[in-house]
Prior knowledge:
The protein is an all-alpha fold.
Amino acid sequence: MFNNILSNKSLRILIGINSIFILAANMFPPLFALFIQKIGGGLFEAGSIWAVFAIFTGFLMLLITRFGDRVIEKEYLVAGGYVCRILGWLGYFFASSLWHLYLLQLVLALGEALGTPAFNAIYSEHLDKGKYIRQWGACGSLSLIVMGIAAFLGGSIASIIGFRILFLLMSGLAALSFIFLMIQPRKVL
Protein backbone atom coordinates (compact mmCIF):
# COMPACT_ATOMS: atom_id res chain seq x y z
CA MET A 1 0.00 0.00 0.00
CA PHE A 2 2.79 2.44 0.87
CA ASN A 3 5.05 1.27 -1.96
CA ASN A 4 4.34 4.57 -3.74
CA ILE A 5 6.76 6.31 -1.42
CA LEU A 6 9.09 3.56 -0.31
CA SER A 7 11.30 3.94 -3.37
CA ASN A 8 11.78 7.66 -2.59
CA LYS A 9 14.35 7.75 0.20
CA SER A 10 13.67 11.36 1.20
CA LEU A 11 9.93 10.79 1.56
CA ARG A 12 10.55 7.56 3.44
CA ILE A 13 12.78 9.39 5.94
CA LEU A 14 10.38 12.32 6.27
CA ILE A 15 7.41 10.04 6.86
CA GLY A 16 9.35 8.01 9.43
CA ILE A 17 10.40 11.09 11.39
CA ASN A 18 6.94 12.61 11.10
CA SER A 19 5.26 9.39 12.24
CA ILE A 20 7.23 9.45 15.49
CA PHE A 21 6.22 13.05 16.00
CA ILE A 22 2.56 12.40 15.06
CA LEU A 23 2.55 9.59 17.63
CA ALA A 24 3.75 12.01 20.31
CA ALA A 25 1.44 14.85 19.29
CA ASN A 26 -1.73 12.78 19.26
CA MET A 27 -1.47 10.93 22.55
CA PHE A 28 -2.94 13.85 24.48
CA PRO A 29 -5.61 15.76 22.47
CA PRO A 30 -8.38 13.18 23.04
CA LEU A 31 -7.70 13.51 26.78
CA PHE A 32 -7.36 17.29 26.89
CA ALA A 33 -10.70 18.06 28.57
CA LEU A 34 -10.08 15.43 31.23
CA PHE A 35 -6.72 16.97 32.04
CA ILE A 36 -8.30 20.43 32.25
CA GLN A 37 -10.88 19.02 34.64
CA LYS A 38 -8.12 17.49 36.77
CA ILE A 39 -6.47 20.89 37.12
CA GLY A 40 -9.75 22.48 38.15
CA GLY A 41 -11.32 23.64 34.93
CA GLY A 42 -14.39 22.62 33.03
CA LEU A 43 -15.70 22.54 29.51
CA PHE A 44 -15.48 26.31 29.06
CA GLU A 45 -11.81 26.32 30.02
CA ALA A 46 -11.06 23.33 27.79
CA GLY A 47 -12.65 25.11 24.86
CA SER A 48 -11.05 28.48 25.52
CA ILE A 49 -7.58 27.03 26.13
CA TRP A 50 -7.79 25.07 22.88
CA ALA A 51 -9.10 28.20 21.14
CA VAL A 52 -5.99 30.12 22.26
CA PHE A 53 -3.84 27.45 20.62
CA ALA A 54 -5.79 27.43 17.34
CA ILE A 55 -6.13 31.21 16.99
CA PHE A 56 -2.51 31.96 17.87
CA THR A 57 -1.31 29.17 15.58
CA GLY A 58 -3.24 30.74 12.72
CA PHE A 59 -1.85 34.23 13.30
CA LEU A 60 1.70 33.02 13.92
CA MET A 61 1.57 30.82 10.83
CA LEU A 62 0.60 33.85 8.73
CA LEU A 63 3.56 35.79 10.14
CA ILE A 64 6.11 32.99 9.87
CA THR A 65 5.15 31.93 6.36
CA ARG A 66 5.88 35.46 5.15
CA PHE A 67 9.61 34.71 5.50
CA GLY A 68 9.58 30.90 5.52
CA ASP A 69 10.25 30.50 1.81
CA ARG A 70 13.41 32.58 2.18
CA VAL A 71 14.84 30.10 4.69
CA ILE A 72 17.21 27.83 2.80
CA GLU A 73 17.35 25.04 5.39
CA LYS A 74 13.66 24.58 6.13
CA GLU A 75 14.58 21.63 8.35
CA TYR A 76 15.58 24.16 10.99
CA LEU A 77 12.03 25.51 11.05
CA VAL A 78 10.73 21.97 11.56
CA ALA A 79 13.35 21.43 14.26
CA GLY A 80 12.33 24.68 15.96
CA GLY A 81 8.75 23.46 15.88
CA TYR A 82 9.78 20.22 17.56
CA VAL A 83 11.69 22.10 20.26
CA CYS A 84 8.69 24.32 21.03
CA ARG A 85 6.45 21.28 21.33
CA ILE A 86 8.97 19.51 23.58
CA LEU A 87 9.05 22.56 25.85
CA GLY A 88 5.27 22.89 25.79
CA TRP A 89 4.66 19.26 26.69
CA LEU A 90 7.28 19.41 29.42
CA GLY A 91 5.43 22.48 30.64
CA TYR A 92 2.28 20.37 30.95
CA PHE A 93 4.28 18.13 33.29
CA PHE A 94 4.77 21.08 35.65
CA ALA A 95 1.45 22.87 35.06
CA SER A 96 -0.62 23.35 38.17
CA SER A 97 -3.10 26.03 37.14
CA LEU A 98 -5.26 26.90 34.18
CA TRP A 99 -3.17 30.01 33.49
CA HIS A 100 -0.14 27.81 32.96
CA LEU A 101 -2.08 25.99 30.26
CA TYR A 102 -3.13 29.21 28.54
CA LEU A 103 0.53 30.30 28.39
CA LEU A 104 1.74 26.89 27.24
CA GLN A 105 -0.67 27.08 24.31
CA LEU A 106 1.35 30.03 23.02
CA VAL A 107 4.53 27.94 23.03
CA LEU A 108 2.74 25.06 21.32
CA ALA A 109 1.18 27.45 18.79
CA LEU A 110 4.63 28.75 17.88
CA GLY A 111 5.82 25.18 17.41
CA GLU A 112 2.92 24.34 15.14
CA ALA A 113 3.35 27.54 13.14
CA LEU A 114 7.07 26.92 12.65
CA GLY A 115 6.98 23.20 11.96
CA THR A 116 3.89 22.32 9.94
CA PRO A 117 4.29 24.58 6.89
CA ALA A 118 8.03 23.85 6.77
CA PHE A 119 7.47 20.09 6.92
CA ASN A 120 4.86 20.33 4.16
CA ALA A 121 7.26 22.40 2.03
CA ILE A 122 10.12 19.92 2.45
CA TYR A 123 7.82 17.00 1.72
CA SER A 124 6.47 18.75 -1.38
CA GLU A 125 9.98 19.42 -2.69
CA HIS A 126 10.66 15.66 -2.75
CA LEU A 127 7.47 14.46 -4.43
CA ASP A 128 7.93 12.46 -7.62
CA LYS A 129 6.42 14.05 -10.71
CA GLY A 130 3.03 12.58 -11.47
CA LYS A 131 2.70 10.88 -8.06
CA TYR A 132 1.55 13.84 -5.99
CA ILE A 133 -1.82 12.47 -4.89
CA ARG A 134 -0.43 9.00 -4.17
CA GLN A 135 2.52 10.29 -2.17
CA TRP A 136 0.52 12.88 -0.22
CA GLY A 137 -2.19 10.26 0.27
CA ALA A 138 0.33 7.80 1.68
CA CYS A 139 1.63 10.45 4.09
CA GLY A 140 -1.89 11.40 5.14
CA SER A 141 -3.17 7.87 5.55
CA LEU A 142 -0.16 6.78 7.58
CA SER A 143 -0.53 9.90 9.75
CA LEU A 144 -4.17 9.01 10.46
CA ILE A 145 -3.30 5.42 11.32
CA VAL A 146 -0.58 6.65 13.70
CA MET A 147 -3.04 9.17 15.21
CA GLY A 148 -5.43 6.34 16.03
CA ILE A 149 -2.67 4.30 17.63
CA ALA A 150 -1.55 7.40 19.55
CA ALA A 151 -5.03 8.05 20.92
CA PHE A 152 -5.29 4.47 22.14
CA LEU A 153 -1.81 4.53 23.69
CA GLY A 154 -2.34 7.95 25.25
CA GLY A 155 -5.58 6.87 26.89
CA SER A 156 -3.99 3.65 28.11
CA ILE A 157 -0.88 5.33 29.49
CA ALA A 158 -2.78 8.17 31.18
CA SER A 159 -5.25 5.79 32.80
CA ILE A 160 -2.62 3.31 34.01
CA ILE A 161 0.40 5.52 34.82
CA GLY A 162 -0.94 9.08 34.73
CA PHE A 163 -0.72 12.27 32.73
CA ARG A 164 2.73 13.28 33.93
CA ILE A 165 4.38 10.16 32.49
CA LEU A 166 2.40 10.70 29.29
CA PHE A 167 3.83 14.22 28.96
CA LEU A 168 7.36 12.92 29.49
CA LEU A 169 6.83 10.23 26.87
CA MET A 170 5.42 12.75 24.39
CA SER A 171 8.40 15.05 24.96
CA GLY A 172 10.81 12.12 24.56
CA LEU A 173 9.25 11.04 21.27
CA ALA A 174 9.39 14.61 19.98
CA ALA A 175 13.04 14.77 21.03
CA LEU A 176 13.68 11.59 19.02
CA SER A 177 12.06 13.21 16.00
CA PHE A 178 14.28 16.24 16.49
CA ILE A 179 17.42 14.11 16.73
CA PHE A 180 16.51 11.98 13.70
CA LEU A 181 15.81 15.13 11.69
CA MET A 182 19.07 16.81 12.68
CA ILE A 183 21.30 13.81 11.91
CA GLN A 184 20.03 13.49 8.36
CA PRO A 185 22.44 14.68 5.68
CA ARG A 186 21.13 17.96 4.29
CA LYS A 187 21.16 16.53 0.75
CA VAL A 188 18.60 13.90 1.81
CA LEU A 189 16.21 16.58 2.97
